[in-house]
Input
Amino acid sequence: MFTGEYFHSFDNKGRVIIPSKFRDELGDVLYIGKGFDQCLFVYPYETWIEFSSKLKKLSLLSSEHRFFSRRFLSGFSECNIDKQGRLLLPPNLRDYSDLKDEAVIIGVLDRIEIWSKENWDSYSNSDEMNFEKVAEKMSELGLEL
Output
C-alpha cells in the first residue's frame, strides 16, 4: 500500500527519483500515464493488469465505454525505474502535468501520483474542496476513522 508525500527535483533529462519506500512495491515494470486533476498515475504491473482486465469488460457497443478506454489507455506507457531509483518521464506527460523543476510524489493506496509542486499546492489547499467537509461526507458513506 502506498502512502506518504515526497518532494523531488527533476534532473536535466526529465528523470525524477522515486522514493525508496515505493520502489520495492512498484517492482521492475510499471505503468505511467495521464491521471485526473493534471497529475500522473503510476501503477505497479500487477495492479495495472488487474485494472485493465476490468476495462476489458466494458462494452464496445457503448460510445462512453469506448471513449473512456481510448482516452485513458492512450495516455499510458510501460516504464522502468533505473538502478539509481529514477523514473524518466516522457515529455508529453511532463507537459500534461506541468512538471518542470520540482515534483510531489504521493502514495494513494494502490498507485502513486506525481504532481507538479504548484499544482499539488493549489489542489490540496483549494477553497473548493474543504477536507473537513469531504471527511464528513465520507463518514455518511460509512467510512469511519
User: Anything to note?
Assistant: Helices lie at 20-26, 45-55, 63-74, 91-96, 117-124, 131-140.
